[in-house]
């Protein structure tokens, strides 16, 4: 089980690194003035990934801060085509425990499969409850996307089951998609 978990965690880093180096490469050519700022933010984000690489869990507070930084990179890349809204009741603890980089992977999944643009941004709503981190978005399928192999969601499911003892849930109703990530109390 421990070896399987390490293999699942290692699948995350190359994927994240590859995507962001491609973004940085495009920015260097098209928007060199933005590329340096992007690189600074990317470096901070990747530091978080490296620091959490050996951790099985992290606080929800750390995960939200990390995801907020990640969205700032996406704002630069996609010209504000995607908006993040984080909702939680005051009494809901941000000390809950979750999987490192899980919220970032959820956001990446939304953007991979859904179209947003600056004139009509796609709202990604994150709702924090006592037991779940719910990521919800309107389904706006991209027309030129390759079929999904669901590697990211399957990876997240296996990690959640192995570490948190609960699986993720996906709900698709009408034109809405919701991914529910389990939280463990503080």
TrEMBL record:
Pfam families on file: His_kinase
Matching InterPro entries: Bact_2-comp_sensor_kinase, HATPase_C_sf, Sig_transdc_His_kin_internal
Highest taxon listed in the record's lineage: Bacteria
E.C. number(s) listed in UniProt: 2.7.13.3
GO molecular-function terms, A-Z: protein histidine kinase activity
Every Signal transduction histidine kinase internal region domain range: 4-80
Assigned keywords, A-Z: Kinase, Transferase
Protein name (Swiss-Prot/TrEMBL): Sensor histidine kinase
Organism of provenance: Microbulbifer epialgicus
